[in-house]
Hints:
By secondary structure, this protein is an alpha+beta fold. It has 3 helices and 8 strands. It has helices at residues 7-18, 84-98, 113-118, and strands at residues 2-5, 39-45, 48-57, 67-75, 103-109, 122-123, 128-130, 134-142. It is globular, with a radius of gyration of 14 Å. The structure holds coenzyme A (COA). The site of coenzyme A has 20 residues, from helix 1, strand 4, helix 2, strand 5 and helix 3.
Amino acid sequence: MIKFIALEDVLPVRNEVLRDGKLTPQECIFPSDQLDSIFHLGYYVGDELATIASFHQNGYAEFEGVGYQLRGMATIQKYRGQGLGNQLLNFAIVYLRGQKVNYLWCNARKVALQFYHNTGFEIISDEFDVPNIGPHHVMYVKIQ
Length: 144
Ligand SMILES: CC(C)(COP(=O)(O)OP(=O)(O)OC[C@H]1O[C@@H](n2cnc3c(N)ncnc32)[C@H](O)[C@@H]1OP(=O)(O)O)[C@@H](O)C(=O)NCCC(=O)NCCS
């Protein structure tokens, strides 16, 4: 089941999946988590939080209309490859369309390019490196 969830629920999964469990939950807070427009989605399998993602308003470069940025997309290891991430992103896109948002973008890890591509995202930047994390591309999906 996909739900809107609180930041404190997101942080342990961010740490486990995106920071290899090396940080404290507090250290996994992004500056964007403080914005009024932020929301977090979680996919629960029973009582267990399996997949998370966070979204905030942030335009990218020259794109027209209202843009949102996706951050912190993560599925815990044992639930990967079952389509949960895909369903969560599709839920977000439908919700954002209802909010009159025009496009969604993210800094996608190179290993996750195909995952984003499956939901309709396309690459819009050259490859760039994020220190300690690795190669990325900016990816974009038009919502309306
Ligand atoms: C990237 C990530 C979020 C994807 O989450 P996920 O829940 O595994 O995503 P999905 O299951 O929807 O899709 C993943 C793969 O499973 C496959 N898949 C989708 N539905 C499936 C199903 N029902 N059965 C089996 N496989 C399925 C997809 O084809 C996809 O493969 P591909 O990316 O090679 O095309 C997850 O792998 C993850 O947390 N990775 C580590 C952190 C990370 O890199 N995050 C992205 C930061 S930019």
